[in-house]
Amino acid sequence: MKKAAIFRLETLFDFFLLVLGIAIVVVSLGYGFGSLGRPGPGLYPAFLGAAISIFAFFILISELRSGTGKPMPDRRGASTLVLMTATFCLWIVAMPLLGYVVVTLLATFAFCKIMKLEGWWQPLVVSVGTALFIYLLFDHWLYIDLPRGILG
Fold first, then answer.
1. Do 101 and 55 fall within a single domain?
2. Does a structural domain hold residue 152?
3. Within 10 A of 6 (CB to CB), how many other CB atoms are there?
4. At what angle do helices 121-134 and 100-114 cross, to 10 degrees?
5. pTM, whole model, 2 decimals?
6. Judgement on whether residues 62 and 116 belong to the same structural domain of the protein
C-alpha cells in the first residue's frame, strides 16, 4: 500500500511538471521569439518550457510502464532535505536585506555543513570561493548589478 501512494505522488508531480512546461511555452509565445540575429524575450522560456515538457513526458511514461515507486528517504535524508529547503528559502528572503554576495556566502556555508563537509575550513573556503567567484563574474566581468542589501 505504501509503494502505491508513493507511485501516485511521483506520477502526480511528473504530470504537474508536464503541465507547467506546456504553460511556460504558451505564455512565452505571447512575448515573441524575435529573429536569429535578435532573439526576443520569449525564445529562452519557450525552449526551457519545451525541455521541461519533453523530459517530464518521458519520465511520466517510464513510471507508468514500470509500475513501481521509489522508496521514501529515511529520517536522516528527510531532515537533510528540509534543512536544504529552509536554507534556500532563507537565502531568498535575506538577499534583499544583506545583499547577494553575503547571503550566498552564508548559504553556501550552510549547505556545506548540512551535506556534512568536514571541519570548518573546507566549508569556509568553498563559501568564500563561491561568493568571490560570483561577485567577480557578475559584478566585474559581466557588469550585472547584484542586490547589495543594506551593507551596500
1. no
2. no
3. 14
4. 150
5. 0.59
6. no
Tens-place pLDDT, residues 70-91: 666 677 877 888 899 999 999 9
Distance CA 75, CA 33 (A): 46
- β-partners of residue 39 are 34
| Neighbouring residues of 106: CB distance < 8 A, sequence distance ≥ 6 | 91, 94, 98, 127
Contact present, 69 and 16 (Cβ < 8 Å): no
The total of other beta-carbon atoms located within 10 Å of residue 84's CB is: 15
Are 144 and 138 a contacting pair, CB within 8 Å? Answer: yes
DSSP labels, 128-141: HHHHHHHIIIIIII
Domain count, the chain: 2
Q: Could you list the residue range(s) of the whole structural domain that residue 130 is in?
A: 75-141
Q: Which of 66, 90, 106 is the last residue of a domain?
A: 66
Q: Which amino acid is at 72?
A: M
Region 1-8 average pLDDT:
51
Average pLDDT, the chain: 86
